[in-house]
Structure prediction request, 312 residues.
Amino acid sequence: MTDISYQAQSYDNEASLGDYFALLKPRVMSLVVFTALVGLLAAPVSVHPVIAFASILFVAIGAGASGALNMWWDADIDAVMKRTAKRPIPAGKVTPDEAKVLGVALSGMSVMMLALSANLLAAGLLAFTIFFYAVVYSMWLKRLTPQNIVIGGAAGAFPPVIGWVVATGSMSVEAWLMFALIFMWTPPHFWALALFMKSDYEDAGVPMLTVTHGRKATRMHILVYTVLLVGLAVGTAFTAIGGPVYLTVAIVLNALFLKGAFDIWRRDEAAAEADGYRVEKAFFKLSLLYLFLHFVAILVEAMLPVSWGIWA
Prediction:
């Protein structure tokens, strides 16, 4: 934790089950579950339904463990930021030690059970993902460098790889393409959020790009990363996990995403302030739909009775 002053909360009220569940970051967990499931189902190997269910469950628990450890470590800055002030620890519902114990316990259980239900490689990747998010990102990168989101985005990109490894027992180019899709999507997604969160990150002492380089530079970074993402996303259509359905979805979504990034880039702060960051907020909402629909398209291609492969 940083030297940001963190006032001890009163924990007189007994925490509810919902408070402990909130520690697991259920919204993030739902994305992890979905992308891991797509990775598992897109793999060219069938998995017994019981093994598949158990594996995705333990991946979800591992994601929740990461969330609890992140909230434990970030309790001081969560209390400062408006977006996170109502989380269980700064709100005085759960103690930091309870969050830490829960995170550590769930981490160990999820990794061990995934090893038993699937394979050691999948369990090893889950362990590395938890470590990367809780230690490399939360404890180190987040408060050290404006590239925190860029590098730290790898933690959120591993679930489809884990799903693929659960099915196949090995890694492949297709698994890493799904990884790359999330990895390249993460910076423009979070930088758009940072643009309209105004002073939250600055107040908390987090060196987000908007704080260290300013909003103008952040807008340029969003455009550059979006251009790179567009090439990757559309190009994936011509791989084994792509096909005509995916290509159609990718063309539409990436045209909209690129236009949104361009609109953000050409705006100045006066215009953004005047309309309440309308364009930036719209881009952020589109980014959520963007990732979800790309993975839906990958799933549809995998479920089609005829595999298009590489369009052969």
User: Anything to note?
Assistant: Residues 172-312 form one domain. Confidence is low (pLDDT under 50) at residues 2-8. The chain is about 70% helix and 0% strand.
